[in-house]
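Changelog note: in this version the structure field was regenerated for every chain. One regenerated record is shown below for reference.
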Amino acid sequence: MESFDKLYYRAVERKGSERSLKILLGEPIPNSVISSTRDDRILSAFSKKVFQSGFVWRVVENKWPNFEQLFFDFSIEKILMMPEEMLERKAADPLIIRNYNKVKTIKANAQMIFTEQQNGHSFAQFIADWPSSDIIGLWAYLKKHGQRLGGNTGPYALRALGKDTFILSRDVESYFRAHDIVTGGIQSKTSLKSIQHCFNQWQQQCDLSLAQLSRLIAFG
């Protein structure tokens, strides 16, 4: 794997200056902000990314206020109390994107959040406390216990919430393949462990977050 310095200065060269690159990398969000997020906002973020997956993001964004209204502002308790017939009726409402299979994930992911709440903390706290050195473990948790949160959907939702995570975008995937760090499926356990290892090594060489390092690779 390349050193952090090599990654960094290649990105500086392509973006024109260290100042320009710093602006593009952005600033990480403190865990205290994430832990104070209400769990209904967690469910909303998960649900939005599920609907945006394979669809025009702008359309989902425009319709999202209707989703909020129709699904009780994503109140975990109210969602879980909905009978299946009500869920079917809401899935057919023209105010939202009518996809029953995706609508069903709202209740399923509310159940995942509720189940974790029974351990004495909010789901937001659970996410905030998860170590960045094993962010792929959190991805795996969302994939196993949630619905349609595998692939890049879970990571994009975490990024939207401010949780520090890298994203396996096309540019990032191309980088790891070009350096023979990944040779098989990008989402295989072996590939993800190799990628996490690289990010962990880079973090030991700098003070950047996973999100910033992810952007750094793409910019370079």
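Spot check on this record: The two ends are 15 Å apart (CA to CA). The mean pLDDT is 96.
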